[in-house]
Write a structure and sequence with these properties.
96 residues, alpha+beta, four-stranded antiparallel sheet, 2 helices, elongated
Length: 96
């Protein structure tokens, strides 16, 4: 299992049709919750004051994370940064 810290900054165009925007956001929420229920999207936190989040993903490979991110309905409107994680030797418990 590989853990990744992923920051997602969303910038939906302000002139995007409201019905299209609503559909994308609705599909994004459904997809993200399915991934959370499956244990792939372990944590998600909103960054205060921004349309951004910090998330932790637990996946089998970098390719799996790539596939997950590319299938996010909001992906075309995101800037994403990824950091691979590993257990720290001073950690009291493992989260992997």
């Amino acid at each position: 299992m590989h853990l990744y810290h992923v920051r997602m900054d969303v910038d939906i165009p302000r002139d995007l049709d409201e019905a299209v925007r609503t559909d994308i956001v609705t599909r994004e929420k459904k997809y993200s919750q399915e991934l959370q229920q499956a244990g792939k999207w372990r944590h998600i936190w909103r960054i205060v004051g921004q349309y951004s989040n910090i998330s932790v993903f637990a996946v089998e490979s970098p390719a799996e994370l790539h596939e997950i991110l590319w299938n996010l309905p909001l992906f075309p409107y995101m800037t994403i940064s990824i950091l691979p994680l590993t257990t720290h030797p001073s950690a009291i418990e493992s989260v992997a």
